[in-house]
Design brief:
Blueprint: H1 2-19, H2 24-39, H3 47-55, H4 62-69, H5 80-95, H6 98-143, H7 148-165, H8 194-218, H9 241-244, H10 254-261, H11 279-303
């Protein structure tokens, strides 16, 4: 859900901004920064390379990386409480007055102190990166004429929507960290079969991407159907992967995810060196091909 978090926030912010009468250009700008804020909680994977270096791991593969990352991943940075405090800190800094900036830095210091107290030095360092990333997105938004109040809104939307997306792909994050109270105890089960669960979660991810594409085209006067090349139908050939590859699960999904995403290459332009490449059409065609491939694989898997 790395991309899905950002695209969902982008779509929600863009549509919501339009509903309250914001211009199309500004609505897309708000959506962009909501998406960037939604990506901020996952900066906690910064612990992975540090942890690997500290442990002197000789061979680093995807499984080793994620095993190390999960020591702190989906921890403090995925808290609704810490996300709210960070959004307020970013807002106070954007206000620009001396008292508001003192309050902003105080809130950021509280975030780091709480993480250090409840999760040790690792938690403190990770939340420091979390805060810096949030302030960085806030500064970029301010430079692009996003006022303090809209900035607070997109920061809250991005930071607080992110943890809910993780309910499909892993153990629920600690929504109320640092408190031990459980808001959600188990991952949302979309299908009883492990492979079916992965395919359902992947379908939600694709749906989120399509929602973002729809929101963008809605605000840019492009027709969605005009952006799809007939080449996208080639994705149906991925059905053969159900016979050739081991059935993927949430725990063992890399071979499926990387191979199905590779189908998006059919969206590449026939003449890659041409100056008239329509990048949006290329992306939508690739996304359509991946969607067709996922449906074809699911149907083939269901018939096995």
């Amino acid at each position: 859900m790395f991309i899905g978090h950002a695209l969902l926030a982008f779509a929600l912010a863009t549509v919501a901004a339009e509903r309250v009468g914001v211009s199309r250009e500004r609505a897309l700008r708000y959506g962009l920064f909501a998406g960037l804020f939604a990506a901020v909680p996952d900066v906690d994977v910064v612990y992975a390379p540090v942890g690997l270096l500290l442990e002197s791991v000789a061979t680093v593969g995807p499984d080793v990386f994620w095993e190390t990352a999960n020591v702190i991943h989906r921890g403090p940075t995925h808290s609704l409480l810490l996300g709210t405090v960070l959004a307020l800190a970013v807002y106070c800094w954007a206000v620009g007055t001396r008292p508001s900036r003192v309050l902003s830095l105080s809130l950021a210091a509280v975030l780091v102190a709480v993480a250090w107290l409840f999760s040790g030095p690792i938690g403190g360092v990770v939340v420091s990166v979390f805060a810096l990333a949030g302030f960085g997105v806030g500064a970029l938004a301010t430079r692009n004429a996003v006022g303090p109040r809209p900035l607070l809104a997109v920061a809250l939307l991005g930071l607080l929507s992110h943890p809910f997306g993780d309910l499909l792909t892993g153990s629920p994050p600690p929504f109320l960290y640092p408190f031990e109270a459980m808001l959600v105890a188990e991952r949302i089960a979309l299908h009883p079969d492990p492979t079916g669960q992965l395919l359902a979660a992947f379908a939600v991810e694709l749906g989120t991407v399509w929602l973002a594409i729809w929101a963008y085209t809605r605000h840019s006067d492009r027709r969605l159907l005009d952006l799809v090349s007939p080449r996208a139908s080639l994705g149906a050939g991925y059905a053969a992967a159900a016979l050739l590859l081991p059935a993927p699960t949430m725990e063992q999904s890399a071979h499926f995810v990387f191979s199905v995403l590779a189908i998006s290459v059919v969206g590449a332009p026939v003449r890659p060196l041409s100056r008239d490449v329509d990048r949006l059409r290329m992306a939508v065609t690739g996304l359509t091909a991946v969607s067709v491939a996922a449906v074809a694989y699911a149907l083939a898997y269901g018939l096995l």
